[in-house]
Amino acid sequence: MGTVLKGGYVVELEPAVVERVDLRIEGERIVARGPDLETTPDDEVVALSGKLVFPGLVSAHHRLHAILARGMPNVVRETYQDTLEKGLWPYEDALDLDAVQVAGCAGGLEALQCGTTTVCNLHSSPKAVSGSLVRLARGLHEVGVRGVLAYAVSDRSGAVVREEGLEETVGFAQKAQGRFRGQVGAGPGFTLGPDALQGLVEALKATHSGMHLPLAEDPLDERLSTERHGASPVSRLLELGLLSPKCQLAHVGHLDWAELAQVIATGAWMVHTPRANQGLEVGYAPALKFGARATLGADGVSADLFAEAQAAYLRSREAGQPIDVLRYLANGHRMVSQHFGMPVGPMREGALADLLVLDYLPATPLTGENLAWHVVFGLGSRHVEAVMVDGVWRMWARRPLSVNPSVVSEQAREAASAVWARMGEAR
After folding, report:
1. Which residue intervals define the domain Amidohydrolase-related in the entry (predicted)?
2. Which of 327, 360, 392, 401 is 20 to 30 A from 419 in CA distance terms?
3. What is the DSSP letter of 179?
């Protein structure tokens, strides 16, 4: 027994292909592709009538907990440092485990509805470290979204919290299975002292994974790292061998060419976050210079990777450095395939069945040659009609199948109000 998708236009991103073929899914994988596949009486046959079958999208740098911060009162944004010290960090300090799980569910639901089937999440909740990644995973599991989760280890809340963070990120990475994988996470370079960096070295040895951290989001990262620790974040990371092809580095907006070239040479994934960069007014990251392993992440903005791709392309054009937006999206699949040890993204035999059905009726011909222009100027999350993750329908006819959106949003509003109240009490 399987699921057969018939009569749809199947999309692949790189090399770009748009082809009217059928797909057969059995268990968690695509097992056959071709015109007019045969079916059996036990099959679930889905007639798509010309709709698009699109790979599920990937947010390679995500902050699920940020969904409870939207509209948060009294956020000071005069400088990047103000945003961290008077906004983001007090907010993270006010999170408890219940809020973390609710954020995982609400953020996962938003991702699902936008067609984002995998989030690579970097989490921080210094007053609720132990168990936080498991609670995030529970929230995502309710919705059915795939997750690669890490705790952001740092020294900003002291040595005890740093060690809790190391234990949390390593423990989750060692036991994650199914739709979940773990990574070693870290905060910005200037929040990492020598003991934190050494702890990360040991964590990578224990997990055989890569590291997920923000790098050079703002010039503050290098300035404070040099003032506090005597060297730039890149120099310190390279000295200890912390960068590798298993790592993913978010933002990467403020490195000189020499340091950027050193980072690219390690093979690390570079995650471009254009909408978040705009929101924080930290300047344009030179995405065209990120090399062959560049991809996209939503950070703390909505999980709409169609919108992220459009922003990335349009900003790159404005900067006179146009990027290949299809490659950036496809690299998200390549990175996640590396994490899970099996192909995610290709609409081919053997790949995990993470896919979207898009109700998109183009006003012009749609081909592999012009797919990028449809992605940038036409396609959007509003076209997401159905979502499959791991071979299971998670959304159908625009309705999530395992959660009630009204209940999830009500729980999120209650959790957000409680977090905001604790922030007010702490001031």
Report:
1. 52-393
2. 401
3. T
Residue 34, strand partner residues: 22
Q: Residue 167's CB: how many other CB atoms inside 10 A? A: 16
| Contacts of residue 178, Cβ cutoff 8 Å, sequence gap at least 6 | none
Give the mean pLDDT of the chain: 96
CB count within 10 Å of CB 4 equals 19
Q: What is the DSSP letter of 211?
A: E
Task: Count how many residues are written for the chain.
Answer: 427
pTM, two decimal places: 0.97
Q: Residue 419 phi/psi, 5° resolution?
A: -65, -45
The reported pLDDT for the residue numbered 77 is 72
Distances, alpha carbon 129 to alpha carbons 126, 169, 298, 333, in Å:
6, 9, 23, 29
Alpha carbons 375 and 359: distance in angstroms, whole number: 14
pLDDT tens for each residue of 276-326? 999 999 999 999 999 999 999 999 999 999 999 999 999 999 999 999 999
Look at residue 424 in the predicted model and tell me its pLDDT: 83
If phi > 0 it is left, if psi is from -120 to 50 it is alpha, else beta; for residue 74 that is left
Buried/exposed code over 319-338 (b: 16+ C-beta within 10 A; e: otherwise): eeeebbbbbbbbbbbbbbbb
Give the largest Cα separation in the chain, rounded: 70
- Distance between first and last Cα of the chain: 59
| Cα–Cα dist 56/391, whole Å | 12
Closest CA to 48 of 278, 302, 342, 361: 361
Q: Which amino acid is at 277?
A: N
Closest CA to 399 of 391, 408, 410: 408
Burial of 241 (0-12, 13-18, 19+ CB in 10 A): exposed
CA–CA dist 299, 213 (Å, integer): 11
CA distance 239 to 229: 13
